Amino acid sequence: MADVDFRQGAYPVSGPGTTNLADILERVLDKGIVIAGDIKIDLLDIELLTIRLRLFVASVDTAKKAGIDWWETDPALSSRAARSALQDENRELRERLKALESRTDDESAPAAAKEDRGT
């Protein structure tokens, strides 16, 4: 009978490979995962509330490849978007102010002309 070496590592272990949490998270973020579900609240067969949940878990790069980049334009999440929103609001307010001032100037011009004529 042949001698068999049972020391650890002498024979490859067959079966499912071990995967740690970091490997699983890396795979999920690299590929992305979608979790979807609906919550409905009915009372006597009358639908009171429906909530549709869609969760997409992925890395930023994977999300951008999927065409998802809403965080770049959300002022609450992006300082660049916040500055852009403030600049847009500032420009809009300046235009409105200019329009109001020009309207006020147009209305006061006939009154000034009447004063010049002495009427």
TrEMBL record:
<comment type="similarity">
    <text>Belongs to the gas vesicle GvpA family.</text>
</comment>
<dbReference type="GO" id="GO:0012506">
    <property type="term" value="C:vesicle membrane"/>
</dbReference>
<dbReference type="InterPro" id="IPR018493">
    <property type="entry name" value="GvpA-like_CS"/>
</dbReference>
<keyword id="KW-0304">Gas vesicle</keyword>
<dbReference type="Pfam" id="PF00741">
    <property type="entry name" value="Gas_vesicle"/>
</dbReference>
<dbReference type="InterPro" id="IPR050530">
    <property type="entry name" value="GvpA"/>
</dbReference>
<feature type="region of interest" description="Disordered">
    <location>
        <begin position="97"/>
        <end position="119"/>
    </location>
</feature>
<dbReference type="GO" id="GO:0031411">
    <property type="term" value="C:gas vesicle"/>
</dbReference>
<protein>
    <submittedName>
        <fullName>Putative gas vesicle protein GvpJ 2</fullName>
    </submittedName>
</protein>
<dbReference type="GO" id="GO:0005198">
    <property type="term" value="F:structural molecule activity"/>
</dbReference>
<feature type="compositionally biased region" description="Basic and acidic residues">
    <location>
        <begin position="97"/>
        <end position="106"/>
    </location>
</feature>
<dbReference type="InterPro" id="IPR000638">
    <property type="entry name" value="Gas-vesicle_GvpA-like"/>
</dbReference>
